[in-house]
Amino acid sequence: MKPVKSFEARTPTPFNGNPFGLVYGGAINSNESGKVNIHPITYELNGIRIAANVYTPADYDPSKKYPAVTVAHPNGGVKEQVSGLFAQRMAELGYITVAADAAYQGESGGEPRHTDIPFFRTEDIHGMVDLLSIYPGVDVERLGMLGICGGGGYTLNAAKSEKRVKAVATLSMFNTGRVRREGYMSTRVKDIQARLKQASDARQAMITDGKVISAGGTLDLETLTDEYIASIKNDLYREGLLYYGKTHRHPNSTFEYTQASLTELMAWDATDNIKLISVPLLMMAGSISDSLYMSEDAIEKATGTADRELFLIPGAMHIQTYWKPEFVEQEVEKLKEFFGRTL
Questions:
Q1: Quick check: pTM over 0.70?
Q2: Structural domain of residue 142, as residue ranges?
Q3: C-alpha atoms less than 13 angstroms from C-alpha of 173 in its C-beta half-sphere
Q4: Alpha carbon distance 283, 223 (integer Å)
Q5: What is the CATH number of the domain that holds 143?
Q6: Cis omega (within 30 of 0) on the bond before 12?
Q7: What is the pLDDT of residues 208-244, one digit of tens each?
């Protein structure tokens, strides 16, 4: 492992009228004095170039000390979407925050593209902590972590050993290993061995002929018809197609991951050794989300901390917690209380 030791400015890629490429509601369009500012940067983590956005509070003064929070994006997501929204909102509360694209994804480097392996996704979060620890103005004694969806599962994993942080929060946590292994809502437990064989064969194909086999599907706008989206039975995937494919679309966002990644993903679980988390833990989820079972399972197993809470957002489904104003306001208010108390 090679920790982050330096960073440099990055020229952002505009998209859809936003100079920073941001697609969430209320996103920054320009850096103005007296307001939250965004700082596009890059840094190297384990030999891979990571693209990130750092958000600083209004009237930021690098000679002062601020609490800071990492924000990890969902599976398939990028820093310009929901992780950017919560990074900006936390900066509005006085925190220095960072939202980075995972290695092999988004604007970050790494080949093969769309590799999704727990070690690297967990290292991404350790790397964001590294970055904050050297960022001007950060109080290294007041570091926290926030992870959303798949980023929430990987944040839990990082928090098991990341003792530089004093508090951990998740939103709509998605246990990627469990879902890749058992299927969403345990719908694919009967063909686990067959899918592991497919993943092993995909890894061998990379060795023998350099072929990268993709899984998970793409976000092809031509096929994302209203009829097709409406036909998806579970809320997470149906609303996910709307969010990622239409309302909050970004060109770097994709549902793809390499088939070979499953050799690692299916043998991993976000709740393995979760009792190693010894700091305050807040897990937020929609009360009617069909992914709620994963947060319930994790919070029950997180016995290493007495300061733990599952906070339910009434009437919210998984994807709605990312963007719907009435739900976001409740989540931000809860984060304000939680990190205000713990950091």
A1: yes
A2: 8-182+270-338
A3: 31
A4: 35
A5: 3.40.50.1820
A6: no
A7: 999 999 988 777 766 778 888 888 889 999 999 999 9
